[in-house]
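Work Package 4 report. The design task specified in the project plan requires that, given a folded chain encoded as structure tokens, an amino acid be chosen for each position. We show below one input record used in the internal validation round.
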């Protein structure tokens, strides 16, 4: 009696797992088959904001100095 109860619990657990997996695959298929959304991006404003990019550098002053010098040469700003 106990063995058949354990078998029933195992069978129901496997059936539930297969049902959940089947539902997941159905959702994935449904998402793949959705038509692409025709989203139109809004136009950019006339003036864009200035952005500061900070890159964390730890104990590498020579790397920072090289990048800073290269940036100055590339922009033509020798006196900054």
């Amino acid at each position: 009696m106990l063995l058949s109860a354990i078998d029933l619990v195992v069978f129901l657990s496997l059936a539930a797992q297969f049902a959940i997996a089947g539902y997941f695959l159905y959702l994935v298929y449904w998402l793949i088959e959705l038509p692409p959304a025709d989203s139109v991006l809004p136009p950019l404003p006339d003036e864009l904001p200035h952005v500061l990019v900070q890159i964390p550098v730890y104990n590498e002053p020579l790397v920072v100095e090289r990048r800073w010098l290269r940036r100055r040469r590339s922009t033509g700003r020798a006196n900054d």
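The chain has one domain: 2-34+51-75. Validation will be extended to a larger panel in the next phase.
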